[in-house]
Amino acid sequence: MKTNKTIYCCLLIFTAFFSACDTNDDIVVNVNDGDFTIILPSPPITGQNTSLTAQQTTQLIFKGKLSTVLGYQSGSILGPTILVNSGDSLKVQLKNDLTEPTNIHWHGLIVPANMDGHPEDVVQPGASFDYKFKVAQRGGLYWYHPHPDGYTAKQAYLGLAGAIIVRDTEEDKLNLPSGEFEVPLVIQDKRINTDYSLNYSPTMNDVMTGYMGQYITVNGVHTPYKGVKTTTYRFRVLNGSNSRIYNLGFSNGVSFKVIGSDGGLLETAETVSTLLLAPGERADILIDFSSYNIGKELFLINNTFTGASTQGKQKFNILKFVLETKITDNYTTPTLLSSIDKIASSTASKTRTFRISEMSMSGMGNMGGMTMTGMHQINNKVYDKNRIDEVVTAGSTEIWVFDNSTGAEPHPMHIHGVQFQVLDRTGGRGSLIASEKGWKDTILLLPGEKVRVIMTFSEYKGVFMLHCHNLEHEDDGMMLQFEVK
Ligand code: C2O
Ligand code: CU
Ligand code: CU
Description:
The chain is mostly beta strands. It is 9% helix and 38% strand. The strands form 6 sheets. It has a 7-stranded mixed beta sheet with strand order 13-12-11-15-20-17-18, with no helix packed on it. It is globular, with a radius of gyration of 22 Å. The site of one copper (II) ion has 6 residues, from loops.
């Protein structure tokens, strides 16, 4: 019996290996520059008391074509953007009108364990649940999405996700671009069926690399454009894709300023011309359109990048900007954005290491490092709801090391219930990028890299998750549980 199973497994692995070799270089993004004619929508804003109904609905993702999607409200993919002030309580009623369990995880927010959307803590079809907690953290862009065991990737992909903007007084004082000049951008990639409904049907290859789509969407639409004025805009960017990493930039190569990351503002703005953003990560950027003439067109693009296995081989356009209105601009970016108290390594009471390399095919010739379905692991383990993997002390400070030094794939690692600081990256890129110099909850490890993060756990006791935010890897078991005691 055991032997049969092993043989079957090996066959699957070989099949996966060979088909990976001939078909799955990259999912080629389909985009025609003439198509950028759909006005970029912004999800509606909602306040601290909201009700969301997970349901099947439709949305115009493509011009003139209605797609069947999932949403938190009728007629729209994605949920409303929840706007709260730091210190306020958030009350969200979730009603489940799906035919399978769902729940909500508040990505980046530090909430009690029973409000965190633990994979086993689900709302059954037809039932509802009231999430209620205090938002006691820095201003920033956070987000929400389902987290039920085995359905996270599918539900998030089909449209269940939304942004959360937390405001605080530190940020308010800076007078950053606001109103029409502050724009959330949720970037995702999709595959569709012939009837334009979203298609989520991962093959074994897709589970290995992550499920990537040919169609890039921003705020739920494909090939959008945005008319802009000659001034500085603040884009609050969320990579809400299941597994696609973007190397953001502009078609004319113009530089922009990174002012914030997952957990809010950086200390100072950093000027870059490209910025790598992995699934789950957020970037707060300022782009200055003041020097352009009316009529000028430029694109937010994905630049190619190296070192990320099958990803990053194609350059493509994501969103078109058209300069439409001349206004007087005298915006200047504040030199000091915020102050971030660095957590000293010496205050850490413990260091834990998480080996996130995929299981290598030892004893199978030269295929070491090849990933296989069911075999995305952390410390040689896959997710088991009945096993607590780590126990940490409430309020204590620890260093966690994510080690992808022998891995073959990129893994954006995410920890629930905390915001961390990145101490260093060794191997691979060997340094931190602009958006990694503030508070974070998700950190990208390319093959060959090792990253150390430091964090102080909250006083919320209970079980929290750590996992890869490539959601196919996560559903494939690349997730552990830690208990705060
Ligand atoms: Cu956004 Cu546990 O994830
Ligand atoms: Cu999270
Ligand atoms: Cu991964």
